[in-house]
Amino acid sequence: MLKCKINGVEVEVKEGTTIIEAFKIAGQKIAHYCWHPGLSVAGVCRLCMVEIKGQPRLQIACNTPVQDGMEITNQSEQVKETVRWGLDFHLINHPLDCPICDQAGECGLQDQYMEFGLYTPEMAEPKVKKHKVVDLGSKIVLDTERCILCSRCVRFTAEVTKTYELGIFNRGDRSEIGTFENKPLENNYALNTVDICPVGALTSKDFRFRQRVWYLQERESICTGCSTGCNIKIYFNEEGLFRIRPVYNEKVNGYWMCDEGRNIYKFVNKENRLLKAKKGRKGEWLEMEGGAAAKDVAHHFKSLDKERIALVVTGQFSNEEYEALFQFYKKNVGNDFVYHWINNKESFEDFDGLLLRGDRNPNTKGLLQKLEDYRYEQTWAHLEENLKAGKIETLIVAGPENPLWFPDLKEKVQQWGIQLSHLIWLSSAKVQAVDEVECLTWQIPLKTFFEKDGTYVNYQGLEQKSHRIATIVPGALSLSEAAHLMAGEEYKVDMAPILKGPKKNYYVHRRGYL
Amino acid sequence: MSIVHKDTPSTKWYLPGILSGMGLTIKKLFYNLFHRKKMPTLNYPEEKYEYSPRFKGNHVLTVKKDGSLRCTACMLCATNCPADCITIVAAEHEDPTVEKYPIHYEIDILRCVFCGFCEEACPVDAIRMGPEWQTPGLADDNFHYDIQRLAYRPQLKGGILSRVDDEERHQFGL
Amino acid sequence: MEVKVLTKHYDKPEYRSLEGYKKYGGYEVLKKALGMKPEEIVAQVKEAGLRGRGGAGFPTGVKWGFLPNNGEPRYLVCNADEGEPGTFKDRMMMEKAPHQLIEGMLISAYAIQSKKSYIYIRGEYMEPYRIVEKAIQEAYDAGFLGKNILGSGFDHDMDVYRGAGAYICGEETALLSSLEGKKGQPKLKPPFPAVEGYLRKPTIVNNVETLAAVVTIVKDGPKEYRKYGTEKSPGTKIFSVSGNVLKPGNYEVPLGYPLKDLIYNLCGGLKPGRQLKAVIPGGSSAPVLTAEEAERATLDYECLAEMKSMLGSGAVIVIDDSNCMVDLLKVIMHFYHHESCGQCTPCREGTGWLDKIVGSIYKGEGRLQDIQLVEQVSKHMMGRTICALSDAAAMPAISFVQKFRSEFEFYVREGRSKVKEVIANA
């Protein structure tokens, strides 16, 4: 361990730590753009200048390792002057696009200029003109004028994804980020470049112009897109969810997440949700509240033949929900016809080498554990057999949150509609096929990960807690609530606050003034 | 609310009060009859008051030379609005020099408090408070003014140009 | 007087070929060197006090001493990317005596025990490239290159690599990036190339003249080499004199030689009727010297450093009073704007900004505060970047503005050059 003094604060750091990391450890502010903890050191923005006692020249903090007994400061007049001018150099060719720039409000240039900047700009000459609105592929739009050439995105494609799509072309102040001809930026981690871009040069087509960032709240959660369970931050407001970004977790996802995972917010928003519970069959649906539907199931349950009931579960729910569901099943049905629905058998074990896993369920491990605990050991083939033989009349399905990742969903539902006499369909997603089944069906809307508390076990066996944030569909139940209600118990459904009303400027609310 | 009944001589003897009031009325009546120009009131629907050009009346969205909206949908007016009466939906423009523009711009004029903060917040001189203030309507009239109404209502004769010249701004790289 | 140590036989056309080179004692030194221990050669170079001739003036022997002893392959790279405006000595050396360079490289390679070396030639140098290429072929044929050179058991291969004409590739880390096939951009130091250079292996990068000087050091011994020059800047150096002198060209003089003598004696002085106005002593990136300073200056590292200028690559640009300093600064600034690699922000934006400011002054649109601004911007570009290009742009800007402020102010006020009147009056 090395001891050093940073702005007078004594810290102990590991051998090989750079000064900028020591600054972060000491909790001291330091301006920087090109340095990113998940990438190599480029040392090009020249903002993290520090003064080290005994060295005449200023050093960049990102490439200088801490030595024992170093006294480092970035509060001296010389450093402040240098950083002010460094920021001015960044800004002289940066367009004043802030009104139309999506990054405004969370922009590195804005933030750091307010913090360290030279408030009297000297530039009177015309700015360099570069390309605006460059299409980099299906996901990202580039504005080369706004780019400050920190090269984070270039290093990301070179070091993390190793796909090398991006490069810096030309030189001097004509330098531009770009892709090679006919080689768009299409890899599955491309949107991370948007996150790490300190300015608004790279913008996500999905989020572009949809909200100003000050209208968004952010809350941390767990990605339910695959069994990796990346830690995420969800950005939402009264109009719904708008984007998802990764949160650093050393054990799980590091600094990144995949682009497919970023789409999970779409299955939380109302457009893709089952909004009301329904009872009936094709063409004759009776809409009701979720709780009422579950109670109706409970009422109807007594008349069903318990030996002809089966339960199908997917790996999309939390441990607590499985527990409640299996408890319900054990008490009210008692047979062991519990089947694990694996979405895509062929690619289940796939892994793309970075984060994304073929198992697109957040809690397969937890489910397997629970199945083992309850000694439910039936195979899927057994279900098919029983269905064919007509041994099963009623199927309770805890269906997927995201129907996209269940390619056989439609086919299965159609098949069940013919083979069964009752279907109890529990799912948060709106599934067209379920609306067209011929047997008597209860569709009960479930809560998504955004609306409920729960524990998910990822592929490593790591338990992660996800907390409820807000309610999108008011009538929806969590699987455990549904289980309790279907068991006929008196159960109070708990709900997170509903998102409603005009959207607010959360920055002002946080700060108290504009 | 409590009503205080004052039982004093001056309230008991109301006739002198009425008479002095009537006296004042008659005095003003004759004064106004002979000094009609100094009369402070207007015969409203027929006569109208000339307001200062800086009067903050109904909003106007200014247009560019080609007649399209100047507004870039930055939402600063909506953010700054204390009455939360501005709703904007932005979209991507085909022209990369414009980039972002509003496809939907709505002011709920009944919520508006005419404070002028939107005008102040606008970085591109796209919204102004115009001189119009007579906008009566019936209960079922639309008081959510849309782009058509804000920028191209007949009184504006095809839209108001901003003093700020875009081409000049672009030339100087601003 | 000119002292011809390196350039002794340059006037003989046959010196270019292997036969001619051998006739004048070529490759004899290599034989001697191969008989010595590598450490002895390093010690001799150290003792001779040879300083890098490319611009920075770093002691060569010390640089060689930085190589780590970890058994990794080492590379020797000859920096022949002579891009500094005003410099043309390497070109002459490669054209007139390619074998001298090859011999110098072989000795140096033997001294640092490198099995592979590269000559990185500037893209525009087509003729030197052909000559060096041919010379290497000749050396291979004669057994001076390849396996088991002269029966000593020392193997060495040499390749020529042409740049694509970027000034920045003269910077050693950028040169190595370019050599690796990447975009020619300087890399962060540390690690220094001597520790982690070409292909992340220890690499020594030396200038053409430095490597050629190694031959003379090994041939005559360090004492003989130290006969010329000063205590801290020993040896001779080739100066490329250009500008308003009657006889521009390359002159080899001992270090410590008075600049005045170089201009007035060797180069034949200025055109009749002209006054000396300024001298840039070390290529366009060196701060300019006024006439008065030039009279006092001697050509060695210390004296010029004292005058806050530098010896650089030894490109002496002589400026007489018919030249407008604003015009000159504009040209220099445009050059650096064009050549900045664009990595570090202060350099990328600063060079462009300086170019624009000086350009607007030149166009007569300048403001008086622009002169101040040039100084301020330059000040904040200095010492803030990975490589020295930013300093190279800032130093002349500061020195031009500081030393010729009245001329700049006149230009801004009147919108025209002061010099035009001088010319008209003459």
pLDDT averaged over residues of chain A = 91
- Mean pLDDT level of chain B: 86
Terminus-to-terminus distance of chain A? 44 Å
Number of strands of chain B: 5
Percent of sequence in beta strands of chain B? 5-15%
- Biggest chain pair interface: A-C, 36 and 34 residues
User: What general outline of chain B do the C-alpha atoms trace?
Assistant: elongated
Oligomer class: heterotrimer
Measured by DSSP, the beta-strand proportion of chain A falls in: 15-25%
Question: Largest sheet of chain B, described in full?
Answer: 3 strands, antiparallel
Q: What general form of chain A does the structure show?
A: elongated
In the sheet with the most strands of chain B, the strands line up as 2-3-5
Radius of gyration of chain B: 25 Å
Query: Briefly, what CATH class of the domain at 59-171 in chain B?
Result: Alpha Beta
Radius of gyration of chain A over alpha carbons?
27 Å
- Helix fraction of chain B? 25-40%
- Please name the CATH architecture of the largest domain in chain A: 3-Layer(aba) Sandwich
At the third CATH level, what is the topology name of the largest domain in chain A? Answer: Rossmann fold
CATH domain class of the largest domain in chain A: Alpha Beta
What is the number of helices of chain A? 12
Contiguous low-pLDDT stretches of chain A (5 residues minimum) are none
